[in-house]
Every structure is written in structure tokens, then in C-alpha cells.
Amino acid sequence: MTSAIKVRSIAKRFANYCAVEEIDFEIPPGRFVSIVGPSGCGKSTVLNMIAGLQAPTAGAIDVFGEPLRGLNKRATYMFQQDALLPWKTVLNNIQIGLQFRGRGRREALDEARVWLERVGLKGFGDSYPYQLSGGMRKRVAMAQCWIVQPDIVLMDEPFAALDVHTRLRMETEVLRLWTASKNTVIFVTHELEEAIALSDEVLLLSAGPGSRLVGRYEVDLERPRNLIDIKTEPRFHQLYRAIWSDLRQEVLKSYERHD
Amino acid sequence: MNDTTKKRVPILVSQLLLGLIVLLVWELAADTGRLNTFFYSSPSLIARELLSLVLTGELWRHLATTFIEAALAFSIGSLLGIVCGFVLARSPLMASIFEPYLRIGNALPRVVFAPIFFLWFDIGIPSKVALGVTVVFFIVFFNTFRGLREVDVVMIDNARILGASERQLIRHVLIPSALTWIFSSLHVSIGLAIISVVVGEWLGAYYGIGHMIARYRQNFEAAGMFAGVTVLALVVLAVGSVVDRVERRLMRWKPERSGSGMKELG
Question: Which of A115, A149, A183 is the last residue of a domain?
Fold first, then answer.
């Protein structure tokens, strides 16, 4: 089976700074993979290159066997910051991807109504983003990403700004959407717990600049997962300790470099 | 009932009372001879003058002229400003070539163009429109330019990843973003459109409120001059409330600003 994403020795160098150096990995379709690493290690840069928002300085990326040129047409992207259009209602924000792809107005709105309910926002279709809470805005962003039925969803610390409880609910929501759609998710986070709880596999990047892939860890926790209780399971702790002992070194290295 | 509606009625009464007291003091001072009506007129004299302006139909001709001039100046100036703002915001090279000239144009007091426009267009309506356009253009231009330059990059990236073509990006992201900036300057640009055509009329015209005031001045008729000012005040008030309503409708998606009513003054 061709990989959803195949990253071949990509590097990203800026004028006087090298963000990412020689990274290789493959992600089979349908997997939920997290990328973790200390802050400033180039996780977002890797994700942006997969999205086609930035071009790698060296190396190449294959998307379902085809070399990526320009924007990644098979992926959508959920940003850490708010990316909703503030002048459009919730419903119009949700359907915008369908509209961009040339679907009829009525059809797009009907579909958006289904997704509105699916992400638990029934009754908020005519609200504007400023009228929603942070968690609700994330729900709109999720519907926006999933409504176009992308093969890949890229997520860049999407819940970093939320409080712990809202965050847990959003994570549950993501797992639900992913399970139902069976697409591939690449999830960037600096929180190891979040990465383990959600993923099939965790990729560890070393401290930047010039960060590399230093570890891949299979997460063999059973699915479906109950995110409320998963953190108390012994296997979760084993995995956490194993990955943390490596991540910890990178974090310490990044402290030394940035002090 | 919330706080603001609870306070609204007494505030309205106080506002009216304040105006009435000023007018009353003015009238009394004029009637008792403490104020020279030759220079300061009086509310009753002004009212009489206004009434005769309305009854003879004289007022409408002047008002219509000023209105047409201001409306044309505003529309043409806005259109040019939006188009130029768009072109320059999309082309950094053009922007850097034009920058010094736009700076000079913006810094120059536009009134100095009035004699030139009189030379080109005579003293009819077109010269006032041209003057107003030079004022409105720069305000709208700079706001369009900034609005387009300061669109959130994440918003653009998100739209592009969701499949937006260049045209869709312009229509759904760039234009609405620029419009928020343009609307925020609407009060200023409409106000200045009116001011500049009135000043133009004052310098030379056949009709218009500014011309009417200038003519009263030549005849030393204070009441008439104040009548002109009163009419302008009413016009500005009416236009302001229309703009407020339009803005509230089109900017529905923005969080309510606290309504102190002082935003134009701030």
C-alpha cells in the first residue's frame, strides 16, 4: 500500500539558520501520528512543508505516491490560531471549503448543517465567530477541516490555547471524527501526554536548530480509547516513561541553546 | 431592561435641555441688547431667515448642489481609492515606486488645488467634486492598502488549503478584510467630503451651502450665515446617523462597541 505521506530527506534552511535537517519518515493511510519535540524544534515547519505552505530546501515529499508540488490538495490544516473568517456565520464558515471546491450553494449549506450537528453546535449556525467560546470555535474549525473529506488532516497544536477540560473534550471529538472518516491525521504538539493518548505512533524531533528525527514509538493502546481514564493505565505510563526519557534530553539540550 | 436603556431617557432629556438653555440664553442676551445682533444674530432671527429660505425654495437649490457634490466626491474618491489601494497592495514594486508621491499628496493641504480646479472646470459642480475627490481618495486609499496588507496570514493559508482560488481568496478574504478598514474610516471620509465641497463653494460657486454663507457674509447678514451653519449641522447629523445604521448592518459580525457616542470625537 502506498504511504499517505512519505517524507524523503527533507531539510529547511533559512538565510542564517537551519530549522530542519534530513528528516525521513513514512505514514501509512489511516494512521494517527503525532510529532513531538521541544519548542523551536521545527515541528510546525515540517507540518507546513507537508501542507505545501513552505517548500523544503532539500528533499521531497510524496503524497499518496505522487510528489508534492505547491499546496497539498489532499490535506486540510487546523491551525493553533483562529483561522475562521470573522465576517461569515458559523454555517458559512463550515461550508466554505465545499464552496471553494465548486459545490452548489444549497448542497453545501445542507451538508454544513449536518456537520454543525455532528460537532455539537446545533443552533449556532447563524452566530458569528466572536460570539462563540474558544472551544466552540475549535469545533467550527474541525467541521471546516473534515467537511471536505480530506485524505489527510494536519493539526498544529490546535488546542494549545484551551483549558484542560475543554481540551480533553476537543481531543475526544478529534478521535471521533478520525474514527468515523478513517483519514490520516498528523498532529503536532509539545505535550507528550496528548500525543500518546491520541496517536498510533509518536515521532520525536530533536532540539533545533537543525533538528532531526530521533525516535519513533508505536503506541499500542487499545482503541476506542477513553481519554478520561487512559492516563491512569499502566501501559500508558510505560510508554510515557520510555518516550519521555528521550524527549527529556532534547528538552534539556534546547534549554542550553536558548538560554 | 439593561443599564444603557435605563439611562437613555434621562440622558436624552438632559441633552435637549442643554441645547434649549443655550438657545434661551442667547435669545435673552440678544433681546436685552447685551449681545450685538449685527455680529451674533439671535435664534429667532436665524429661525426667521431659515423659514424664508425654505419658503422661497432658495435653500433646496443650495442644499441639492452641496449634496450632489459631496455624494459624487465621496463615490468617485472611494472608488479610485479602493482600486488604487488594491493594485498597490497586491504589487509591492508599484507600491514602493508610488510611495513618495502618495506621501506628498497626502501631506499637502488639498485646498491649494481649488484655484487649479477652478481654472480647469470653472466654478460649477465639477470643481468641487474634484476637490472632494482629492480628500476622500487618500483616506480610502490608505485604509484599503492597510486592510489588505494586514490580513491575517493564517486566514489566507486556511482559505487556500480549503481550496480557494485566487479570485475566491480576493472575494471571501481580502475584500471583506479591507472593507472593515474602509468602513472604520467612513465617518471621517464622508465628513471630509462635505467639508471640502463646502470650502470649495465658499471660494467660488454658483450654488451650494458654502456659497450661500459667503454671500450672506458679503451682505453682513449674520442671521443668514448662522442659518447656513444650522443647515449644515442638520445635514451632518442626518448623514452620520445613516452611516451608523449602514455600518451596524454591514459590520454585524463584529463585537458591539461600547456605545459612548464619542467615537467620532476620539
Answer: A149
Q: What is the pLDDT of residues B125-168, one digit of tens each?
A: 999 999 999 999 999 999 999 989 889 999 999 999 999 999 99
Has residue A245 been placed in a domain?
yes
Cell numbers given for B64: 441639492
Give the tens place of pLDDT for each residue, B229-262. Answer: 999 999 999 999 999 898 888 888 888 765 444 5
Q: How far is A238 from chain B (nearest CA, A)?
A: 37
Residue B184 lies in a domain: yes
Domain boundary among A149, A183, A198: A149
Q: Is A79 on the interface with B (CB under 8 A)?
A: yes
Q: Report the CATH number that the domain containing residue A46 is assigned in CATH.
A: 3.40.50.300
Q: Which residue of A has its CA nearest to B172?
A: A85
Interface membership of A20 toward B (CB under 8 Å): no
Looking at the fold, whether A58 and A108 belong to one and the same domain comes out as: no
pLDDT of B264 above 70: no
* CB-based contact B162 A76, cutoff 8 Å: yes
Which residues span the domain enclosing A208?
Answer: 6-24+31-74+151-259
Answer yes or no: is A1 within a domain. Answer: no
CB contact under 8 A, B165 and A100: yes
Q: For residue A18, which phi and psi values (nearest 5 degrees)?
A: -110, 115
Residue bearing cell 444603557: B4
| Closest CA in chain A for residue B156 | A83
- Chain centre to alpha carbon of residue A65: 21
One domain for residues A56 and A184: yes
Cβ contact A86–B253 (<8 Å) = yes
Q: Are residues A158 and A42 in the same domain?
A: yes
- Is residue A252, in this structure, part of any structural domain at all? yes
Do residues A160 and A66 both lie within one domain? yes
Cα separation, A207 vs A159, in Å, equals 22
CA nearest to A150 within chain B? B162
Whether B7 is in a domain gets the answer no
What was the ipTM of the complex prediction?
A: 0.92
Distance CA A4, CA B264 (A): 56
Note down the domain range covering B86. Answer: 59-250
- Chain B residues within 8 Å of chain A (Cβ atoms): 152, 154-155, 157-165, 168, 172-173, 176, 180, 252-255
Query: Is the Cβ–Cβ distance between B82 and B254 less than 8 Å?
Result: no
As a whole number of angstroms, the distance between CA A62 and CA A72 comes to 10
The pTM for the full model equals 0.83
Inside any domain, residue A255:
yes
Mutation site for B-interface testing, chosen from A84, A92, A96 by largest number of B Cβ within 10 Å: A96
- Residue numbers in A near B255 (CB within 8 A): 130
List CB contacts (< 8 A) between A99 and chain B.
Answer: 168
Nearest CA to A133 among A185, A94, A170, A106? A170
Same-domain pairing of A105 and A224: no
Q: Hey, which residues does A62 pair with through a beta bridge? A: A6, A67
Sorted by sequence, the CB contacts under 8 Å of residue B181 that are 6+ apart come out as B143, B144, B146, B147, B150
